[in-house]
Structures are given as C-alpha cells and as structure tokens.
Amino acid sequence: MLNPDWPLALRLLLTALPCAAAIWFFSSGSVLGGAVFTALTGWAFNALFMRPPGGG
Asked: Which pTM does this prediction carry?
C-alpha cells in the first residue's frame, strides 16, 4: 500500500502520475477514463498526504 512515511518527492510523483493521466484522458475526449484517473488521484492523495505518518 501507499505509505505516508515515504519521501516527499516520491509521494508527489505518485500523486502527479494519475493526475497527468486524467488530464490526458479528458483532453483526448474520454470522460470515463478521466473520471477514473481523477478518482485514483484523490485516493492516492488521501493515502499519501491526509493520513498521519507512522501508521497512527
């Protein structure tokens, strides 16, 4: 699973990749693909930035 204790650069990269995919899908006209990757971006952001580090 995703770990909030990972270095910031890695966490930012793991959040930016699905965001970039969502932008690409939306710009190419695929609303469903964009929606899926938007949801994945939200899940990754929540897992990496909104939970307290150290498993607490």
From this structure: 0.85
Digit-by-digit pLDDT tens for the chain (56 residues) are 788 899 999 999 999 999 999 999 999 999 999 999 999 999 999 999 998 777 65
Degrees (nearest 5) of the Cα angle 5, 11, 42? 110
C-alpha closest to that of 20 among 9, 4, 34, 6: 34
What are the C-alpha distances in Å from 36 to residues 11, 49, 54?
20, 20, 29
7: Cα separation from own chain's centroid: 15
